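Our preliminary data section would be incomplete without showing what the modeling component actually yields. Below, a chain of 178 amino acids is followed by its predicted structure, encoded as tokens that our downstream tools consume directly.
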Amino acid sequence: MDSTTYLFDLLKIILPALIVAGAIYLLFKQFLEKEQQRRLIELRLESNKTTLPLRLQAYERIVMLLERISPNNILVRLSSAGQSAPDFHRLLQQEIRAEYEHNLSQQLYISGDAWTLVKEAKENVLTMVNRAFHGIQNPAQARGTELAKRILEGLMMDGAEPTAQALAVVKNEAAGLF
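Predicted structure:
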């Protein structure tokens, strides 16, 4: 009986100690999980302080790209006076591609869908310019003003700016950052 009493006394001491140790373990585990969550939130906030301005700048640059390659704006910015239609056609193509290539890195900061629409907008503008150029009878003899006129006529016939959809999506995404 002496050994049973000894075992019973030992259990009276060990069992409460195990319960207390288990409770301390659970509390400590919860504390560490909450601390890790707090650190993750701090890292995200710190990261947002760095990336948010970069993302906003990227959206600004994409909006500028879309506005600059818009047929209305590019025709005003690049004068067709004194140029032949082939020269003006080449200049328009070069300018649109240069604007796009200058902003290629911005795709890192915007969604894949928005970037796809930006690429489509660029291609739509190039298609509109090419269609207008090939619609001119005897383009080698035509003036740049004739090409500009054809582009604007095509724009009015289409009824929608080729960059409008991409511009709307980009603006909507930028507004969603706040």
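Residues 16 and 22 are 10 Å apart (CA to CA). The chain has a mean pLDDT of 91. Preliminary results of this kind motivate Aim 1 of the renewal.
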